[in-house]
Amino acid sequence: MKKVISITLVFIIAMFACIGAFAETGSSNMIDIDHVTVIFEEDSMFTPEEQQYIAEMLVYGNENATTLGIGCLFGHKYVEETVTTITHCVNPTDPRCLQEYFLIQTCSRCGKTNTEFIYSMYISCCP
After folding, report:
1. How do residues 57-68 score in pLDDT, each as one tens digit?
2. Cα–Cα dist 66/112, whole Å
């Protein structure tokens, strides 16, 4: 009887550990590339693939050319969101890190992306 109870308890604990691990990985809204952290809104409308593309575009500065989709002949259907980047250790003294805000617009039909710089400021982030 003790074996059955202990096996059941181990199984229950393992189930809760797995649920916690899945919740941890699925709720991330930050992407780290080199010395830059790109932060998306908590309820981001962008898919994880779009977030990765946007993060790389903001860090490396290259925007791929997209073709005009047939659905976009009379205009794009943009989804927009504010995205924050933190470039770490820019200055040798405090405040060391540069925080920038961008308005990102992505067409949900063809994938065309527009980036508009909003503002920037230095913050105390890294020791």
Report:
1. 999 987 655 556
2. 6
Q: What is the pTM of this model?
A: 0.71
pLDDT at position 76, please? 84
List Cβ<8 Å contacts ≥24 apart for 102-107.
Answer: 102/58, 104/46, 104/54, 104/80, 105/78, 105/79, 105/80, 106/46, 106/50, 106/54, 106/78, 106/79, 106/80, 107/69, 107/72, 107/76, 107/77, 107/78, 107/79
Q: What is the mean pLDDT of the chain?
A: 80
DSSP string for 54-65 = HHHHHHH-----
Do residues 117 and 58 touch, judged by C-beta distance below 8 A? no
What is the rounded distance in angstroms from the CA atom of residue 70 to the CA atom of residue 110? 9
Cα-to-chain-centroid distance, residue 43: 11
